[in-house]
Amino acid sequence: MTALVNSADSHVVEPLDLWQQRLPRHLRDRAPRVAEVDGKWVFLVEGMPPRRMGGPSTNTDGKAGGEGAAASQESRFRAGGWDPDERARDLDADGVWGEVLYPTIALFGFMIPDAELRMETARAYNDWLAETFSAASKRFAGAAMIPVQDVDAAVDEIERVAALGLRSVMLPMHAPAERPYNSADYDAVWAAASHHGMPCSFHVGTGSSPWTERGPGGAVINYVEVGLGAQRTLAYLAASGVLERFPELHVVMVECGAGWLSWLLERMDEAFEEHAQWVNPKLPEPPSSYVRRQGHVTFGNDAAGVVNRSFTGVEALLWASDYPHPEGTWPHTRETLDRIFNDVSATERRTITYETTAALYGLEAPA
Ligand code: MN
């Protein structure tokens, strides 16, 4: 029997009416939702243009759905997106033990311009995630949505979700322009996450629009551009001394691949050494050593990242399925892993596909 694996990046699919049901009454007509506009189904999130939903999963078995709007939304994804029992069955069939759970619609909630609507959207999502998945099984490590424009409110919400049983703090990949992640203002956020042993994660495409280029090459250019956010964020956290000041803090760049990590480590250290007279703060160790100790990246299928593991450290790499999104490996996870890890020792494979995620998020399978 093949060993079980954990996925460091999987997704829930929020019910259509989550925010219309759960937001404070005076905000419900501005709730993030799915609606039919000009005959097309779109996400409506205040502050961003209506966005067409992705195509149906090739893995859909046709069981999900019902009448009207619900069928149109839900038949695009497997029921495991919102039903923990269905989800557990799918994981069992695919050889996956545990998952770190990220949202689908709520990924865009970080861009809501209004402070109250943004934070209440996060709180409603976090409540639903904890009630639906954390309460159902220890296999599900929920990542709480934590907007950071108001640091005090962010810390309050971290304290609240820690008590609800959520196990990671999801911050926007793109920090607010007026306050990048090297600002000492965020120290209370790093301290709260460290205190609760919650890794801080930064999912691709959060905090700024992932669709900026509309000209020739746009789809490919935008896919590259959103991935670059992980390099910037990790450089801010390592070079500014955040990781040095909070040695218990772990940071995870989610769904940006892994091959770039080697380049970033060398690039940061080159500046640290060759431009030493301009470097501030002068950290005790080069930036790469903090990333090797406390930084991680998730990937689904990234040959270059795996080849470079002796340089980055095996612990930096976290395998992820992206279930139930159509790009993900379900239901072919075993075959995918055998292909990706063809030349990798069983010990290293187990570290990347199970051990590090188990340690970071408490995703240990029973013996
Ligand atoms: Mn993802």
- Quick one: how many beta strands? 11
Global mean pLDDT: 92
Q: Number of helical segments?
A: 14
The coarse silhouette is: globular
Strand content: 5-15%
Bound molecules: manganese (II) ion
CATH homologous superfamily title:
Metal-dependent hydrolases
Overall number of structural domains: 1
* Range of helix content: 40-55%
Gross CATH architecture: Alpha-Beta Barrel
How would you describe what is shown here?
With 367 residues, the protein is α/β, with parallel strands linked by helices. The protein has one domain: Metal-dependent hydrolases (TIM Barrel), CATH 3.20.20.140. Helix content is 40%, strand content 14%. The strands form two sheets. An eight-stranded parallel β-sheet has the order 1-5-6-7-8-9-10-11, sandwiched between helices. A three-stranded antiparallel β-sheet has the order 2-3-4. A hairpin with a 6-residue loop joins strand 3 and strand 4 (51-52). The protein is globular and about 55 Å long. Manganese (II) ion binds at residues 9, 11, 102, 203, 254-255, 322.
